[in-house]
């Protein structure tokens, strides 16, 4: 670990016990006040630290935001687990839970198929934005300016004959997702697998995560996959209720 980073983290840890003066913080990390002040100003610019009056420093709002976001991610995973595990147990197909963070969609949980064919996806892996059902669910909930920014920076490589190509077609697809309340990956990511996904919502109706069910085409054709849509939607609603959502 770099010396500056180590000192900055030590300052943050000290401030967790309460406001401190510049002199106190300099004494903790054992450097001149000018060096401490430079570190504090950097932390302050990122909202990890804020000045409390003239002589004291305290923790900044960015830390509370990060802590809340980390807790929310763990909470949705824990809250959704019974419903997702039940879906996987009843139908036997692969079930994923994914979340959106800073332009990326990440798998945060997975329940393996009970069939011999397994998917290579794993927890922590990124899901391609333009061709996965979970990404469509999560991006469809973004405010218009944020969505335009993400889509303008996306690439649209053709992975199968069904892959959506280009921003216009993708935005039209997201319109369908909003209207339908679910998303499909009709063999757009891999030509031998298709998938359906639905949103898991929080207390304010915001989309916290996406749950999906993925099935190899040799086990179930597209119409057969869609026949399980009521199961998936019921699972998403049950998980949402556990996250504080109140169905209308």
TrEMBL record:
Residues 2-61 form the HTH iclR-type domain. PROSITE patterns: HTH_ICLR, ICLR_ED. Keywords: DNA-binding, Transcription, Transcription regulation. Pfam families: HTH_IclR, IclR_C. It comes from Lentzea kristufekii. This is IclR family transcriptional regulator. Residues 62-245 form the IclR-ED domain.
